Amino acid sequence: MFNWLKTKRRERALASYAIPDEQWLRALHELSFLDHYEPALVERLRELATLFLVEKSITSGAEEGEHALEVTPHMRIIIAIQACVLLLGKRGTVAEAIEDFANFENVIVYPGDFPQSYDFEDEFGVVHKLDEPVAGESWQGGPVLLSWPSIDAGYVESGMSLVIHEFAHKLDMLNGDIDGIPPMPAEHIEAYRAAISDAFEDFCIHVDANENTAIDPYAAEAIDEFFAVTCEVFFEEPELLRLEYPDYFERLKHYFGIDSLQGQLLEDA
Ligand SMILES: [Zn+2]
Predict the structure, then answer these.
(1) Cα of 111 to ligand 1 centre, how many Å?
(2) Please, where in the chain does CATH 1.10.472.150 lie?
(3) Fewer CB near the terminus (10 Å): N or C of the chain?
(4) Ligand 1: centre distance to CA 46 (Å)
(5) CA of 227 to the centre of ligand 1 (A)
(6) How many A from CA of 134 to the centre of ligand 1?
(7) Rg of the Cα atoms in the chain
(8) Which CATH number is 1-174 given?
(9) How far is ligand 1, taken at its centre, from the CA of residue 107, in Å?
């Protein structure tokens, strides 16, 4: 049952901590994938981002030393907007929508890629420490870790949207399973599962054949990575995802409640 006190507190926060115009416009200017979104939707995004900034602690993972990173208000807003775009089409008030991010508090920002913080157990049960540094991590019920240069590069330059990727993992984890299937109304699950499975299978065939894929081949790693990568594409390059996997694109539209091509709420979601 949704907590009435929480709602009241969030309504008060919205009134008191709105993101200042100048900072908001500067951040929007850098996030060109939102250019075609309807003004009412952009305003809703601003409210979601406001709540995100009130409720989350976004701190530096390297406060001292040669590579120290100071997390500025601008960086926080850039992160908040891209995380909250995932909740933009959710029905209900913004105070209800932000609840999908309620099970964690901390976002930690690093000055570069960082060593992976967990061990990896292979199919024989042998535990390895992965040496390969990573740009981002999402912990089940824990923090989101992000490398600032990867965020700052932007999708147009880097072909990746790290923030959307890691927070998409957060949504996937909400029902306890990390399987590319976030919680959704029961009547939608089967169609969604079929669409993502078909798309993933097809994508892996192309990657295994060493073809050049328009979507980042990292998506072939596992179905949860396919979900996170295609969420990036859904928002940043919707036309590409619609052309490659039209059925899956439709299912994602329903899941997000957004037509990212039109920049509109989905009427019949
Ligand atoms: Zn991932």
Answers:
(1) 19
(2) 1-174
(3) N
(4) 26
(5) 9
(6) 10
(7) 18
(8) 1.10.472.150
(9) 16
pLDDT for the residue 15 = 83
C-alpha of residue 169 to centroid of ligand 1, in Å: 7
Mean pLDDT of the region 16-26: 93
Q: Average the pLDDT over each of 58-72, 111-125, 212-226 and give the range with the smallest value.
A: 111-125
Going from the Cα of 9 to the center of ligand 1, the distance in angstroms, rounded, reads 33
Query: How far apart are the C-alpha atoms of 267 and 204, rounded to whole Å?
Result: 33
Give, in order, the Cα–Cα distances in Å from 189 to each of 84, 136, 183, 195, 198: 23, 28, 8, 10, 14
Separation between Cα atoms, residue 43 and residue 119, nearest integer Å: 41
- Cα 44 to Cα 41: distance, rounded to the nearest angstrom: 5
Q: How far is ligand 1, taken at its centre, from the CA of residue 18, in Å?
A: 31
**Cα 32 to averaged position of ligand 1 atoms, centre (Å):** 23
The pTM of the full predicted model, rounded to 2 decimals, is 0.93
Token pair listed for 13:
């926060």
Identify the H or E element spanning 106: strand 106-110
User: What pLDDT score does 124 carry?
Assistant: 74
Give the β-pairing of 57-60 and 258-259.
Answer: unpaired
207 CB neighbour count, 10 Å cutoff: 18
CATH of domain 183-269: 3.40.390.10
Residue tagged 């990727």 (tokens): 165
Cα-to-centroid distance, 112 and ligand 1 (Å): 17
Question: Where along the chain do the CATH 3.40.390.10 domains lie?
Answer: 183-269
Question: What's the whole-number average pLDDT of the chain?
Answer: 93
User: What pLDDT score was predicted for residue 122?
Assistant: 66
* 239 Cα: distance to centroid of ligand 1 (angstroms): 22
